[in-house]
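Fill in residues.
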């Protein structure tokens, strides 16, 4: 079953008209920021074909992201690699979500969050939805925008740091990425506290006679 407007409709029947869906992308990669999007859909102008971004092709995501920006209220925000290192990836993803919500033109009346945790510091009425990007159209829209925007960032970073394949793997630990780490080393955009990078940087020296 594709996502629908059930949760948004239920909130609207309670008089909550500014309903925001929020989702993040980029928890798992070894490089790059974590990105979140907050989207308030116009019930009269919902783009057709919204779904969990992972179920859509890159071309379809790009088309839908453009339609979302044209018809909905959208804000995109990030947490940097430095923030991921300072806090942890969960806290950084929540920071990105809170920033995206805060960047909307006016505060939402109700927030639909993908997952099972309310971001710490979120001071708006909130509802968590496990698998929300496949259940709520607002969260699906947020997942699409976040994915497209983060992929764009990683493609740009790939131009400055060729060889890691970020334009294709978005910083995930693919075979090409791991091989490039061995050949080219670690960049400032890598998450040094993530286990594969940490192990590579801090391998114990082998004593030789």
């Amino acid at each position: 079953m594709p996502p629908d407007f059930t949760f948004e409709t239920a909130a609207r029947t309670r008089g909550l008209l500014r309903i925001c869906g929020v989702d993040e992308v980029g928890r798992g990669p070894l490089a790059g920021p974590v990105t979140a999007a907050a989207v308030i859909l116009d019930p009269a102008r919902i783009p057709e074909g919204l779904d969990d971004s992972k179920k859509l092709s890159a071309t379809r995501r790009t088309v839908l992201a453009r339609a979302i920006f044209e018809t909905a209220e959208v804000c995109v925000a990030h947490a940097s690699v430095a923030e991921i290192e300072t806090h942890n990836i969960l806290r950084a993803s929540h920071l990105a979500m809170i920033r995206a919500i805060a960047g909307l033109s006016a505060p939402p009346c109700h927030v639909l969050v993908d997952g099972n945790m309310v971001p710490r510091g979120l001071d708006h009425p909130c509802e968590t939805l496990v698998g929300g990007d496949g259940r709520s159209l607002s969260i699906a829209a947020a997942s699409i925008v976040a994915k497209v925007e983060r992929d764009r960032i990683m493609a740009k970073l790939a131009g400055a740091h060729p060889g890691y394949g970020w334009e294709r793997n978005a910083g995930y630990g693919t075979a090409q990425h791991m091989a490039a780490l061995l050949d080219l080393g670690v960049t400032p955009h890598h998450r040094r506290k993530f286990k594969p990078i940490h192990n590579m940087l801090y391998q114990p020296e082998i004593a030789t006679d």
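DSSP finds eight helices and five strands in the chain.
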